[in-house]
Amino acid sequence: MSELGFGIIGAGAICPLHISAIKQCNGARLAAIADVSEERARSVAEQEGIAWYTDYKAMLANPDVDVVCVLTPSGMRAPVCVDVARAGKHIVAEKPLEVTLEKVDRIIDECDRAGVKLEVIFQIRFLPGAQAVKKAVSEGKLGKLVLGDAYVKWFRSQEYYDSASWRGTWEFDGGGVLMNQAIHYIDLLQWIMGPVESIFGYTDTLVKQRIEVEDTAAACIRFKNGALGVIEACTAAHSGKPARLEIRGEKGTIIFEDGNISLWEVEGDTDFVPETVDMGSGASDPMAISSVGHQAQIDDIVRAIREDRDPVVDGREGRKAIEIISGIYKSSRAGEMVRLPL
Which CATH number characterizes residue 187's domain? Predict the structure, then answer.
């Protein structure tokens, strides 16, 4: 069966990870790049030997493009994804899919109408350690779940936010540390622990001087299964540390840090040896991560198209973390508990 041609919209910082993932995936080939900057588009095209465009709609008319990776700033994805879907192309969208639930739902609805696949990048779900945690909880090995906590205490310099006009804005970034950095572990938390019932959150901008959004957040949550949890996140603390997920039940505790299991204490399963991967860490440098997880998701969208099934992280799955984050923002603004669904 012939390879699927991938086009990319947006030649920014995350673009090299998608290029690497596409090139390493059997059944996928890089076909085209589009960016509003001719210099950036041309540079990628010349390096990769592919077609380039400054108008992404012209790229959508290219019959060699079957799947499009949408890598624009977060708050610009809805109109682009709608155009891609209407052109009959499948979509891989970076996280967050969009910055409001209304925009997210617009993308999902348009993809449904067009009959195209939509995959949202939450690559940590695909790592063997994360899969092992999910499997253990699903099989009841931890017994009754008690606590599920996510900690993302990273560092981003003011220069990071100043590097692009859209960073740190509500309109285009959709939020701060929660929507941009902690969203990966918030997604893992709800994926493993189950749906969230209620939230009480605080957000604030404590250190950064030239951003609209939060650099620090803390929230208490209750899951529908009765378990409690905490989300703590910041980009303001000096020297970022590994992101961490802690899952605790009556029969065991598992801790997952920066892509690997660091603690496995489960009754009756003391011989378990977790598989590890070198994912790098975005704790202090957002680009110090590997393309391993992205490759798994490119492979998943290729298989989903071939098998005519939903991708593992489709639009509705990608929506869940955004709803939790939106709930934290709503709670912080109102100073009261918020119940989900919103």
Answer: 3.30.360.10
